[in-house]
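Box 3.1. Reading complex inputs
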Amino acid sequence: MPQRENVERKSTRPTQEAPEEQVAPNQAATERKAALDAEVDSMLDEIDDVLEVNAEDFVKSFVQKGGQ
Amino acid sequence: MTVHRIMGIETEYGITVPGVRIMNAMATSTRLVNAYARNNIRGRQRNPKWDYSEEAPLRDARGFDMSRAEADPSQLTDDDMGMANVILTNGARFYVDHAHPEYSSPEITGPRDAVLWDRAGAAIMHRAAQYTTTDGVDLPILLYKNNTDNKGASYGCHENYLMNRSTEFSSIVAWMTPFFISRQIFTGAGRLGIGQQTRDFQYQISQRADFFETEVGLETTFKRPIINTRDEPHCDAERFRRLHVIVGDANMSDTATYLKMGTTSLVLSMLESGFLEGMDMTPTEPVRSMYAVSHDISLQRRIPLTGGRNWTALEMQREFWNLASKFCESEYADFIDPETIDVLFQWGRILDRLEEEPLECADVLDWVAKYRLMEAYRSRGGLEWSAARLQAIDLQYADIRPDKGLALRLEERGQLVRMVTDQEIEHAQFHPPTDTRAYFRGECLRRFPDEIAAASWDSLIFDLPGKESLVRVPTMEPTKGTKALVGELLASATNAADLVELLGA
């Protein structure tokens, strides 16, 4: 499928001009995972600052009436 | 075949005031809507009431028909003493429904506009909450674009699609049921908890799924049906029905909203054309299958269909996608509009990506983005899934404050894809779409704020200086009242009386 090609091409960087440098699928997956993990890590550092101070109270007190 | 049709999206927001033990949700929601009305409707002397009357004498004049309303002006110009309700210059309605603030988008014609005017709604909610704190001593109001408090209550994000009356309702039930069950894999907003009362802290794909108990019905607040039969088209009921879809999650992700509205509209097009006749994809246990799909983040669960078939949600969606692609190619190859092509492309692409690795779709899908955050936070802190901090992440993902909402923080970091810009959202808060009757409604409210006594989806009621009776202008045709049709007329009218005169000419 053309769509899938696009996804992989994007995540393994340009391959059209230098096909010999194409990264092996396993290595590509590992790299992609590492990049995602780094992204998440930086967000986790922020979450503690952003999250409501007393999580337990916050969650308990979020009581809604039913809607549509 | 096209994704374009008259559609709309309406969202009820979760509302809370931290530090208040027992909050009166109705009063707080009213305070929110009134704060917006007071602070943001510049130069407006009055807040037009919602016109509930359904009288609609029909006479065609550029889509409008006029009649002298019989109501005494004083009955309508009184300040609203009941539930707060504001009709906005962008053509939307911002009001209190049950115990939640709700924003109903103006009528739009495609999924990208749905994303834009839905986000404008969230921005309006946020603005309103800010006004309540600057108004005086009141405690801040927090708002959540989610669908459950995880304690038994659910509130909705409904979609509306105008469709041909001639399409058999039974075929809508037959095809939209499997579609709604399976589309959860990209429309789900994610939820930590199973069951309406949250009996297990296990992550599931949809906020809403566990609140559906029947297959077809009229109810929306209890015994919720997968296919809702409410049928108020707000236009010519002989020709149209409005499919009121109540199964959807409220999405923070633009892509999720875009796919939700776009793919649903495409499937309805296939139904309307009769393309699906002679085929079927009927689930034998619709309600249980709804839960089964939502409760399985590996997307492996098989759904029993008639004829002994057992398909995964992905396979069901793939079949819908194949049918839609085939239909587009065979019937309309040479003149498919760009948005339809884009929806087909994005739809196929998300199915490819979900098939390959669901957990890598965190840049576009809410349920994956939230899961990835929770799972990483959980493993870093060695937490149980029942930990309060994980439940807090679930909630705060949908917080609409840009500095606190986790989905909005992800967007800010470029980790959740955006489809519309801040400038577009700002503009859409105050301006209507140009290609539906919302244009006429919004522009009239913007230009003649003091001469409009009431409005609704299908009417505007003018209170003209020196006139004893009100003038009701029905707007029964959602595809009229567009900029192309009335732009010049509106520009040439120096005041409301002028406009009414021109309309009657």
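In summary: Chain A touches chain B at residues 1, 3-4, 6-7, 32, 36-37, 39-44, 46-47, 50-52, 55-56, 58-59, 61-68 (CB under 8 Å).
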